[in-house]
């Protein structure tokens, strides 16, 4: 049994972020990597987040706040990041619940392709 993917793609988890999080498949586009990283945040998969982080900018350690429950992801805009691109930008709004308080993060994330695989390099948060 497979549930609908939490990344908001309207696909089933097993056909969407599931195979990416398990390492079975690589994200073909920057947007797919962004979605899978949201799913990793939502499921507390630190390992996947670190694996898909640009080695130039990856933090030494990553603490996920257990009081935050990620609820939905909305892709606002994408620029490049396609099958034949080496760089891409994905703008998104991630909605979450922090200890009963609703919040959201609006960010433009920058991705690049490293040895064929997309990695997250940096992001600019809109406030
Ligand atoms: Zn997904």
From TrEMBL:
Pfam families in the cross-refs: SEC-C, YchJ_M-like
Domain of life from the UniProt record: Bacteria
YchJ-like middle NTF2-like domain ranges (all copies): 29-123
Identification of the protein by name: YchJ-like middle NTF2-like domain-containing protein
Organism, scientific name: Corynebacterium pseudopelargi
